[in-house]
Amino acid sequence: MSGRLNLLAGLAFKHIALRKRQTLVAISGVAVGVGFFLAVSALMIGSQTDFIKTLIDAAPHIIISDELRSPTPQPATLAYRGGAVAIRHQKARTEVRGLKDWQEILRAVDDMPGAIGSPSLTGGITLRLGGREEAIGLVGVEPGIEAKVSTIEDNLRVGRLRDLETVQGGLIIGEDLAQRMGLQMGDVVGATSAVGGTRTLRIVGLFKRGAGQLSASSGYVLLREAQSVLGRPFIINRIGVRLADPYAADDVAARLERRFGYKAESWQERSADFLSLLVTRNVIMYSVVSAILLVASFGIYTAVSTSVADKVRDIAILRSVGFSEGDLQLTFVIEGLALAAVGIMLGWLLGYGLMTILGSLDFSINGEHQSLPLDRSARQYAIAAAASLASGVLAAWLPARKAARVDPVDILRSAA
Protein backbone atom coordinates (compact mmCIF):
# COMPACT_ATOMS: atom_id res chain seq x y z
CA MET A 1 0.00 0.00 0.00
CA SER A 2 2.77 2.43 0.93
CA GLY A 3 4.64 1.60 -2.28
CA ARG A 4 1.56 2.41 -4.37
CA LEU A 5 1.08 5.68 -2.46
CA ASN A 6 4.73 6.59 -3.02
CA LEU A 7 4.29 5.94 -6.73
CA LEU A 8 1.22 8.18 -6.92
CA ALA A 9 2.97 10.91 -4.94
CA GLY A 10 5.98 10.66 -7.26
CA LEU A 11 3.73 11.15 -10.28
CA ALA A 12 2.09 14.17 -8.63
CA PHE A 13 5.43 15.82 -7.82
CA LYS A 14 6.68 15.16 -11.35
CA HIS A 15 3.65 16.97 -12.76
CA ILE A 16 4.41 19.91 -10.44
CA ALA A 17 8.07 20.02 -11.45
CA LEU A 18 7.31 19.98 -15.17
CA ARG A 19 5.04 23.03 -15.01
CA LYS A 20 7.19 25.51 -13.10
CA ARG A 21 5.38 28.72 -14.12
CA GLN A 22 1.91 27.48 -13.25
CA THR A 23 3.23 25.94 -10.04
CA LEU A 24 4.77 29.27 -9.03
CA VAL A 25 1.53 31.13 -9.78
CA ALA A 26 -0.57 28.63 -7.78
CA ILE A 27 1.78 28.72 -4.78
CA SER A 28 2.01 32.52 -4.88
CA GLY A 29 -1.78 32.81 -4.90
CA VAL A 30 -2.13 30.63 -1.82
CA ALA A 31 0.74 32.43 -0.05
CA VAL A 32 -0.77 35.88 -0.66
CA GLY A 33 -4.21 34.67 0.44
CA VAL A 34 -2.88 33.13 3.67
CA GLY A 35 -0.65 36.13 4.40
CA PHE A 36 -3.42 38.67 4.08
CA PHE A 37 -5.83 36.38 5.96
CA LEU A 38 -3.41 36.38 8.90
CA ALA A 39 -2.86 40.15 8.74
CA VAL A 40 -6.54 41.05 8.51
CA SER A 41 -7.73 38.53 11.12
CA ALA A 42 -4.91 39.48 13.51
CA LEU A 43 -5.92 43.14 13.26
CA MET A 44 -9.66 42.53 13.58
CA ILE A 45 -9.53 39.91 16.35
CA GLY A 46 -6.84 41.85 18.19
CA SER A 47 -8.89 45.05 18.16
CA GLN A 48 -11.97 43.10 19.28
CA THR A 49 -10.09 41.48 22.16
CA ASP A 50 -8.71 44.85 23.20
CA PHE A 51 -12.18 46.42 23.00
CA ILE A 52 -13.76 43.68 25.12
CA LYS A 53 -10.94 43.99 27.65
CA THR A 54 -11.64 47.72 27.82
CA LEU A 55 -15.34 47.02 28.39
CA ILE A 56 -14.52 44.57 31.17
CA ASP A 57 -12.00 46.79 32.93
CA ALA A 58 -13.78 50.13 32.46
CA ALA A 59 -16.26 49.46 35.26
CA PRO A 60 -17.09 46.75 37.82
CA HIS A 61 -18.13 43.45 36.28
CA ILE A 62 -21.49 43.70 38.07
CA ILE A 63 -23.29 46.79 39.38
CA ILE A 64 -25.98 46.24 42.02
CA SER A 65 -28.18 49.34 42.24
CA ASP A 66 -31.22 50.34 44.26
CA GLU A 67 -33.40 49.95 41.17
CA LEU A 68 -35.98 47.20 40.66
CA ARG A 69 -36.83 45.39 37.44
CA SER A 70 -40.54 45.92 38.20
CA PRO A 71 -42.19 48.55 40.46
CA THR A 72 -42.99 47.72 44.07
CA PRO A 73 -46.75 46.96 44.52
CA GLN A 74 -48.60 49.67 46.41
CA PRO A 75 -50.46 48.79 49.68
CA ALA A 76 -53.91 49.28 48.12
CA THR A 77 -53.09 46.87 45.32
CA LEU A 78 -51.87 44.26 47.80
CA ALA A 79 -54.97 44.67 50.01
CA TYR A 80 -57.41 43.94 47.17
CA ARG A 81 -55.30 41.55 45.11
CA GLY A 82 -57.52 39.32 42.97
CA GLY A 83 -60.70 41.15 43.96
CA ALA A 84 -63.31 42.56 41.60
CA VAL A 85 -62.21 46.07 42.48
CA ALA A 86 -60.42 48.59 40.31
CA ILE A 87 -58.21 50.96 42.26
CA ARG A 88 -57.40 54.20 40.54
CA HIS A 89 -55.72 57.48 41.43
CA GLN A 90 -54.21 56.11 44.62
CA LYS A 91 -51.30 58.06 46.03
CA ALA A 92 -48.08 56.13 45.50
CA ARG A 93 -46.23 55.21 48.64
CA THR A 94 -43.06 57.24 49.05
CA GLU A 95 -39.99 55.10 49.49
CA VAL A 96 -36.53 56.02 50.67
CA ARG A 97 -34.05 55.18 47.92
CA GLY A 98 -30.96 53.20 48.76
CA LEU A 99 -29.93 49.58 49.20
CA LYS A 100 -31.57 48.10 52.28
CA ASP A 101 -29.43 45.71 54.30
CA TRP A 102 -26.52 46.53 52.00
CA GLN A 103 -24.07 45.06 54.52
CA GLU A 104 -25.65 41.64 53.95
CA ILE A 105 -25.38 42.03 50.17
CA LEU A 106 -21.75 43.03 50.53
CA ARG A 107 -21.01 40.01 52.73
CA ALA A 108 -22.68 37.71 50.19
CA VAL A 109 -20.47 39.14 47.45
CA ASP A 110 -17.28 38.91 49.48
CA ASP A 111 -18.08 35.28 50.38
CA MET A 112 -17.88 34.29 46.71
CA PRO A 113 -14.40 32.98 45.73
CA GLY A 114 -12.32 35.70 44.09
CA ALA A 115 -15.10 38.33 44.26
CA ILE A 116 -14.76 41.83 45.73
CA GLY A 117 -17.61 44.25 46.41
CA SER A 118 -17.24 48.01 46.71
CA PRO A 119 -20.07 50.15 48.21
CA SER A 120 -20.70 53.62 46.82
CA LEU A 121 -23.24 56.44 46.82
CA THR A 122 -24.06 58.42 43.69
CA GLY A 123 -26.02 61.62 43.26
CA GLY A 124 -26.06 64.94 41.46
CA ILE A 125 -24.39 68.12 42.66
CA THR A 126 -23.55 71.51 41.18
CA LEU A 127 -20.03 72.91 41.32
CA ARG A 128 -19.74 76.70 41.58
CA LEU A 129 -16.71 78.87 41.04
CA GLY A 130 -16.68 82.58 40.22
CA GLY A 131 -20.24 82.65 38.91
CA ARG A 132 -19.72 79.56 36.73
CA GLU A 133 -21.76 76.43 37.41
CA GLU A 134 -21.27 72.83 36.25
CA ALA A 135 -23.54 69.89 37.13
CA ILE A 136 -21.76 66.59 37.73
CA GLY A 137 -22.56 63.15 39.04
CA LEU A 138 -20.90 62.73 42.42
CA VAL A 139 -19.64 59.27 43.41
CA GLY A 140 -18.66 58.52 46.97
CA VAL A 141 -16.27 55.57 47.34
CA GLU A 142 -13.98 53.80 49.75
CA PRO A 143 -10.61 54.30 47.96
CA GLY A 144 -8.90 51.15 49.27
CA ILE A 145 -11.74 48.91 48.07
CA GLU A 146 -12.66 50.83 44.89
CA ALA A 147 -9.10 50.56 43.58
CA LYS A 148 -9.50 46.74 43.54
CA VAL A 149 -12.85 46.86 41.73
CA SER A 150 -12.42 49.50 39.01
CA THR A 151 -9.60 51.07 36.99
CA ILE A 152 -10.04 54.58 38.38
CA GLU A 153 -6.44 54.71 39.54
CA ASP A 154 -5.17 53.94 36.02
CA ASN A 155 -7.19 56.82 34.56
CA LEU A 156 -5.69 59.48 36.81
CA ARG A 157 -3.44 62.01 35.13
CA VAL A 158 -2.32 63.47 38.46
CA GLY A 159 -3.12 62.59 42.05
CA ARG A 160 -3.95 59.31 43.74
CA LEU A 161 -7.24 57.76 44.78
CA ARG A 162 -6.15 57.44 48.40
CA ASP A 163 -5.69 61.25 48.53
CA LEU A 164 -9.44 61.34 49.14
CA GLU A 165 -8.75 59.92 52.59
CA THR A 166 -5.89 62.25 53.48
CA VAL A 167 -7.36 65.56 52.26
CA GLN A 168 -10.51 66.95 53.88
CA GLY A 169 -13.19 67.40 51.21
CA GLY A 170 -10.98 65.93 48.48
CA LEU A 171 -12.50 65.79 44.97
CA ILE A 172 -11.29 64.12 41.76
CA ILE A 173 -12.68 65.42 38.44
CA GLY A 174 -11.75 65.23 34.77
CA GLU A 175 -9.25 67.41 32.96
CA ASP A 176 -11.94 68.72 30.58
CA LEU A 177 -14.18 69.87 33.43
CA ALA A 178 -11.23 71.40 35.28
CA GLN A 179 -10.25 73.34 32.15
CA ARG A 180 -13.80 74.63 31.60
CA MET A 181 -14.00 75.91 35.16
CA GLY A 182 -10.41 77.09 35.37
CA LEU A 183 -9.55 74.69 38.18
CA GLN A 184 -6.13 73.31 39.04
CA MET A 185 -4.73 70.92 41.62
CA GLY A 186 -5.33 72.23 45.14
CA ASP A 187 -8.07 74.71 44.13
CA VAL A 188 -11.23 74.97 46.24
CA VAL A 189 -14.69 74.86 44.65
CA GLY A 190 -18.19 75.15 46.11
CA ALA A 191 -20.61 72.21 45.86
CA THR A 192 -24.39 72.29 46.27
CA SER A 193 -26.71 69.27 46.25
CA ALA A 194 -30.41 69.01 45.43
CA VAL A 195 -31.29 68.94 49.14
CA GLY A 196 -29.57 72.26 49.66
CA GLY A 197 -26.40 71.00 51.29
CA THR A 198 -23.39 73.22 50.54
CA ARG A 199 -19.75 72.29 51.01
CA THR A 200 -16.35 73.35 49.77
CA LEU A 201 -14.29 70.69 48.05
CA ARG A 202 -10.60 70.67 47.15
CA ILE A 203 -9.25 69.27 43.85
CA VAL A 204 -6.84 66.41 44.66
CA GLY A 205 -6.78 64.56 41.32
CA LEU A 206 -7.60 64.84 37.62
CA PHE A 207 -8.79 62.15 35.24
CA LYS A 208 -7.16 61.85 31.84
CA ARG A 209 -8.92 63.21 28.80
CA GLY A 210 -10.82 60.54 26.90
CA ALA A 211 -11.44 58.40 30.00
CA GLY A 212 -15.11 58.00 29.08
CA GLN A 213 -17.74 59.17 31.55
CA LEU A 214 -15.05 59.69 34.19
CA SER A 215 -13.68 62.80 32.53
CA ALA A 216 -16.98 64.03 31.10
CA SER A 217 -19.39 64.33 34.01
CA SER A 218 -18.21 62.51 37.13
CA GLY A 219 -16.50 63.51 40.32
CA TYR A 220 -15.20 61.19 43.06
CA VAL A 221 -15.11 61.91 46.78
CA LEU A 222 -14.83 59.86 49.93
CA LEU A 223 -18.01 57.87 50.71
CA ARG A 224 -18.80 59.63 53.97
CA GLU A 225 -18.17 62.97 52.24
CA ALA A 226 -20.75 62.11 49.57
CA GLN A 227 -23.24 61.02 52.24
CA SER A 228 -22.79 64.37 53.95
CA VAL A 229 -23.02 66.50 50.78
CA LEU A 230 -26.04 64.62 49.45
CA GLY A 231 -27.77 64.56 52.84
CA ARG A 232 -27.97 60.75 52.94
CA PRO A 233 -26.01 59.54 55.99
CA PHE A 234 -25.27 55.82 56.26
CA ILE A 235 -26.91 55.16 52.86
CA ILE A 236 -25.40 53.64 49.74
CA ASN A 237 -27.19 53.03 46.45
CA ARG A 238 -24.68 51.00 44.49
CA ILE A 239 -22.33 48.06 44.98
CA GLY A 240 -19.70 47.37 42.34
CA VAL A 241 -18.57 43.74 42.05
CA ARG A 242 -15.37 42.47 40.49
CA LEU A 243 -15.12 38.74 39.73
CA ALA A 244 -12.19 36.40 39.19
CA ASP A 245 -13.87 35.26 35.95
CA PRO A 246 -15.45 38.25 34.15
CA TYR A 247 -17.36 35.98 31.75
CA ALA A 248 -19.32 34.51 34.67
CA ALA A 249 -20.85 37.93 35.38
CA ASP A 250 -24.21 37.14 33.76
CA ASP A 251 -24.81 34.05 35.93
CA VAL A 252 -23.59 35.66 39.14
CA ALA A 253 -25.69 38.79 38.52
CA ALA A 254 -28.80 36.67 37.98
CA ARG A 255 -28.22 34.81 41.27
CA LEU A 256 -27.69 38.03 43.23
CA GLU A 257 -30.81 39.60 41.73
CA ARG A 258 -32.95 36.57 42.58
CA ARG A 259 -31.66 36.54 46.14
CA PHE A 260 -31.89 40.24 47.03
CA GLY A 261 -34.40 41.60 44.52
CA TYR A 262 -32.30 44.59 43.47
CA LYS A 263 -31.21 45.07 39.87
CA ALA A 264 -27.81 43.44 39.28
CA GLU A 265 -26.45 44.41 35.87
CA SER A 266 -23.49 42.56 34.36
CA TRP A 267 -21.00 44.14 31.98
CA GLN A 268 -22.44 41.95 29.19
CA GLU A 269 -25.90 43.41 29.77
CA ARG A 270 -24.58 46.97 29.86
CA SER A 271 -22.65 46.40 26.62
CA ALA A 272 -25.18 44.21 24.78
CA ASP A 273 -25.43 46.60 21.82
CA PHE A 274 -21.67 46.73 21.35
CA LEU A 275 -21.30 42.95 21.63
CA SER A 276 -23.99 42.36 19.00
CA LEU A 277 -22.13 44.72 16.67
CA LEU A 278 -18.97 42.67 17.19
CA VAL A 279 -20.79 39.51 16.07
CA THR A 280 -21.88 41.23 12.85
CA ARG A 281 -18.34 42.55 12.39
CA ASN A 282 -16.90 39.04 12.74
CA VAL A 283 -19.31 37.62 10.16
CA ILE A 284 -18.27 40.31 7.68
CA MET A 285 -14.58 39.81 8.44
CA TYR A 286 -14.55 36.03 8.03
CA SER A 287 -16.67 36.31 4.86
CA VAL A 288 -14.11 38.67 3.32
CA VAL A 289 -11.01 36.72 4.31
CA SER A 290 -12.65 33.42 3.29
CA ALA A 291 -13.30 34.94 -0.12
CA ILE A 292 -9.59 35.82 -0.31
CA LEU A 293 -8.63 32.19 0.34
CA LEU A 294 -11.23 30.92 -2.13
CA VAL A 295 -9.89 33.16 -4.88
CA ALA A 296 -6.36 32.02 -4.03
CA SER A 297 -7.42 28.39 -4.61
CA PHE A 298 -8.31 29.16 -8.23
CA GLY A 299 -4.60 28.99 -9.03
CA ILE A 300 -4.52 25.38 -7.79
CA TYR A 301 -7.64 24.59 -9.84
CA THR A 302 -6.02 26.06 -12.97
CA ALA A 303 -2.75 24.22 -12.42
CA VAL A 304 -4.40 20.83 -11.85
CA SER A 305 -6.88 21.32 -14.71
CA THR A 306 -4.05 22.13 -17.11
CA SER A 307 -2.12 19.12 -15.86
CA VAL A 308 -5.15 16.90 -16.49
CA ALA A 309 -5.65 18.30 -20.00
CA ASP A 310 -1.98 17.80 -20.92
CA LYS A 311 -1.74 14.31 -19.46
CA VAL A 312 -4.84 12.73 -20.99
CA ARG A 313 -2.79 10.15 -22.92
CA ASP A 314 -0.68 9.34 -19.85
CA ILE A 315 -3.87 8.96 -17.81
CA ALA A 316 -5.27 6.53 -20.37
CA ILE A 317 -2.10 4.43 -20.24
CA LEU A 318 -2.21 4.34 -16.43
CA ARG A 319 -5.85 3.23 -16.55
CA SER A 320 -5.01 0.49 -19.06
CA VAL A 321 -2.24 -0.95 -16.87
CA GLY A 322 -4.50 -1.27 -13.84
CA PHE A 323 -4.66 2.09 -12.04
CA SER A 324 -8.16 2.68 -10.64
CA GLU A 325 -10.22 5.85 -10.73
CA GLY A 326 -9.44 6.38 -7.06
CA ASP A 327 -5.69 6.16 -7.75
CA LEU A 328 -5.88 8.86 -10.41
CA GLN A 329 -8.03 11.10 -8.26
CA LEU A 330 -5.59 10.70 -5.38
CA THR A 331 -2.67 11.62 -7.65
CA PHE A 332 -4.12 14.99 -8.58
CA VAL A 333 -5.41 15.63 -5.06
CA ILE A 334 -1.85 15.08 -3.76
CA GLU A 335 -0.71 17.59 -6.37
CA GLY A 336 -3.19 20.14 -5.04
CA LEU A 337 -2.25 19.40 -1.43
CA ALA A 338 1.44 19.88 -2.19
CA LEU A 339 0.80 23.23 -3.85
CA ALA A 340 -1.40 24.32 -0.92
CA ALA A 341 1.13 23.15 1.71
CA VAL A 342 4.02 25.09 0.17
CA GLY A 343 1.78 28.13 -0.29
CA ILE A 344 0.66 27.93 3.35
CA MET A 345 4.23 27.91 4.67
CA LEU A 346 5.18 30.89 2.51
CA GLY A 347 1.89 32.56 3.53
CA TRP A 348 2.76 32.10 7.18
CA LEU A 349 6.04 33.94 6.60
CA LEU A 350 4.27 36.70 4.67
CA GLY A 351 1.60 37.01 7.36
CA TYR A 352 4.23 37.17 10.09
CA GLY A 353 6.00 39.94 8.20
CA LEU A 354 2.79 41.91 7.68
CA MET A 355 1.88 41.57 11.37
CA THR A 356 5.37 42.76 12.33
CA ILE A 357 4.92 45.85 10.16
CA LEU A 358 1.43 46.54 11.57
CA GLY A 359 2.68 46.01 15.11
CA SER A 360 5.47 48.55 14.61
CA LEU A 361 3.04 51.33 13.65
CA ASP A 362 2.64 53.92 16.39
CA PHE A 363 -0.30 56.32 16.80
CA SER A 364 -0.74 59.31 19.08
CA ILE A 365 -4.20 59.37 20.70
CA ASN A 366 -4.96 62.09 23.26
CA GLY A 367 -1.25 62.69 23.65
CA GLU A 368 -0.48 59.02 24.37
CA HIS A 369 1.41 56.72 22.01
CA GLN A 370 -0.40 53.49 21.22
CA SER A 371 0.27 50.59 18.87
CA LEU A 372 -2.24 48.48 16.99
CA PRO A 373 -3.58 45.54 19.05
CA LEU A 374 -2.91 42.30 17.15
CA ASP A 375 -3.89 38.70 17.77
CA ARG A 376 -0.72 36.68 17.03
CA SER A 377 -2.04 33.42 18.48
CA ALA A 378 -1.38 30.05 16.80
CA ARG A 379 -5.14 29.70 16.38
CA GLN A 380 -5.14 32.17 13.47
CA TYR A 381 -2.31 30.27 11.74
CA ALA A 382 -4.23 27.01 12.19
CA ILE A 383 -7.47 28.49 10.79
CA ALA A 384 -5.64 29.87 7.75
CA ALA A 385 -3.90 26.53 7.13
CA ALA A 386 -7.07 24.46 7.53
CA ALA A 387 -9.10 26.74 5.24
CA SER A 388 -6.36 26.78 2.60
CA LEU A 389 -5.90 22.99 2.67
CA ALA A 390 -9.66 22.48 2.35
CA SER A 391 -9.82 24.93 -0.57
CA GLY A 392 -6.78 23.28 -2.20
CA VAL A 393 -8.25 19.78 -1.92
CA LEU A 394 -11.57 20.95 -3.37
CA ALA A 395 -9.86 22.86 -6.18
CA ALA A 396 -7.78 19.78 -7.08
CA TRP A 397 -10.59 17.25 -6.66
CA LEU A 398 -12.88 18.88 -9.25
CA PRO A 399 -10.51 18.35 -12.22
CA ALA A 400 -9.33 15.04 -10.68
CA ARG A 401 -12.86 13.67 -11.09
CA LYS A 402 -12.67 14.46 -14.78
CA ALA A 403 -9.32 12.69 -15.06
CA ALA A 404 -10.63 9.58 -13.31
CA ARG A 405 -13.52 9.27 -15.77
CA VAL A 406 -11.28 9.11 -18.85
CA ASP A 407 -12.04 6.09 -21.05
CA PRO A 408 -8.64 4.63 -21.95
CA VAL A 409 -9.97 2.77 -25.01
CA ASP A 410 -11.32 5.93 -26.67
CA ILE A 411 -8.16 7.94 -25.89
CA LEU A 412 -5.73 5.29 -27.16
CA ARG A 413 -7.88 4.63 -30.28
CA SER A 414 -7.95 8.35 -31.19
CA ALA A 415 -4.22 8.64 -30.60
CA ALA A 416 -3.55 5.70 -32.90
Automatic annotation (TrEMBL):
Main subcellular location: membrane
Transit peptide as UniProt keyword: no
Residues passing through the membrane, by range: 24-45, 283-309, 330-358, 378-398
A Pfam family recorded for this sequence: FtsX
InterPro entries: ABC3_permease_C, Lipoprotein-release_system, MacB_PCD
Membrane topology category: Multi-pass membrane protein
ABC3 transporter permease C-terminal domain segment(s): 288-408
GO cellular component, one term: plasma membrane protein complex
Span of domain MacB-like periplasmic core: 23-258
Protein's UniProt keywords contain Cell membrane: yes
Protein localization: Cell membrane
GO biological process, one term: lipoprotein localization to outer membrane
Keywords: Cell membrane, Membrane, Transmembrane, Transmembrane helix
Family: Belongs to the ABC-4 integral membrane protein family. LolC/E subfamily.
Name listed for the protein in its UniProt record: ABC transporter permease
